[in-house]
Write a structure and sequence with these properties.
Helices cover 39% and strands 21% of the residues. The chain folds into two domains: 119 residues, Serine Threonine Protein Phosphatase 5, Tetratricopeptide repeat (Alpha Horseshoe); 192 residues, Jelly Rolls (Sandwich), CATH 2.60.120. The strands form four sheets. An eight-stranded antiparallel β-sheet has the order 1-2-13-9-16-7-6-3, with helices on one face. A four-stranded antiparallel β-sheet has the order 8-14-11-12, with no helix packed on it. A two-stranded antiparallel ribbon has the order 4-5. A hairpin with a 2-residue loop joins β1 and β2. The longest helix has 18 residues.
């Protein structure tokens, strides 16, 4: 009991250090607990080192600590190892390892891991999953396609429920400022799904999108789930980074252009809510699981000015969309 009380006191001190902005002291204390063998400390320190959150970015050390926590049957560590193995981040992509780690996490009592295994079922066929239906191209110049039934309803519902508690007002990027700002032209809400807060289902969806577009999954940004209530909008905009704006120069140099956008309608119990392409005089409104995608650049790499698009407001019900952007270059682990 005394050991438990001492550990709890150390954890409280680390939290106090973090809240006070004393990150170096928090990191030192966390390293101490990890060195003493605490699986919890190893798990939390691993996350910090993997992405450099108030700590140096040390992905190899992060993976070592995460593996040690997993070896101690730490459910959250095992689940994160499953996610990273599925994504090919911090380690080579290995779906067999991902599913084994997911099963071990479930055995360790990880609730979300159990739910994912139940959703996938014993008959889940990874090969079939990574061979999505062929697209029906709506336009070839610019390139716009539709895939009916891209995601099954159960996966769509999973994404909605995972996103629901994370919803926040949607923002727009301010070029060169390294920040996002509110805009009257975008009134919907959004749930950002970074890798460390992801799950294997999300990684399966990303892998299916990568297969459909024939791009490496490591080029996919963290996905967003968009939520529109009646009257909420996203006015006409482009998804590419305008190379004529100096504020985008650094981002374009490091990550390259945002070459493609892939949208999946996650529900259908609403009216209105189309994705509108005014330059093409075309609108798309999918049923649950239907996808629309478009390439924001031409085959020669030049940006495609005809692909301005807008999220029209629902007139009844709620609209849920998965939004996945694809970059020209690999995305770092974030």
């Amino acid at each position: 009991m005394q050991a438990d009380a001492a550990f709890a006191a150390q954890v409280r001190q680390i939290v106090q250090f973090e809240r006070a902005g004393r990150h170096a002291e928090a990191l030192a204390a966390l390293r101490g607990l990890a060195e003493e063998g605490s699986p919890d400390a190893r798990f939390y320190l691993a996350q910090k080192l993997l992405i450099g959150e108030n700590a140096p970015r040390e992905p190899q050390e992060g993976m070592r600590l995460l593996t040690l926590a997993g070896d101690a049957e730490h459910g959250e560590a095992l689940h994160l190892l499953a996610v990273l193995s599925a994504a090919g981040q911090g380690c080579a992509q290995d779906w067999g390892a991902a599913m084994r780690f997911l099963a071990k996490a479930a055995e360790a009592g990880h609730t979300t891991a159990k739910a994912q295994l139940a959703l996938l079922g014993q008959a889940f066929d990874l090969g079939a999953w990574l061979s999505p239906p062929a697209a029906e191209m709506q336009f070839t110049r610019p390139r716009v396609g539709v895939i009916a039934g891209f995601l099954p309803g159960g996966i769509c519902k999973w994404l909605i429920e995972r996103a629901r508690p994370r919803l926040a007002p949607a923002m727009i990027a301010e070029p060169g400022a390294g920040r996002t700002v509110a805009s009257r032209g975008r009134t919907n809400t959004v749930a950002y799904m970074p890798l460390l807060n992801s799950d294997v289902i999300v990684q399966l969806v990303r892998a299916r999108i990568a297969a459909a577009l024939d791009v490496p999954s490591t080029h996919l940004e963290a996905p967003n789930v968009l939520h529109y209530q009646v009257g909420q909008i996203f006015e006409t905009h482009y998804d590419f980074m305008d190379p004529a704006l100096p504020g985008y120069a650094q981002e374009l140099a490091s990550l390259g252009q945002r070459v493609a956008t892939f949208l999946v309608y996650l529900d259908q119990d609403f009216d209105g809510g189309e994705t509108a392409f005014p330059e093409l005089d075309w609108r798309f409104r999918g049923s649950t699981g239907d996808a629309v995608f478009f390439w924001n650049v031409r085959p020669d790499g030049a940006v495609e000015p005809k692909l301005a698009h807008a999220g029209a407001p629902p007139t009844r019900g709620e609209k849920w969309l998965l939004s996945q952007w694809v970059r020209e270059r690999p995305i770092p682990l974030i």
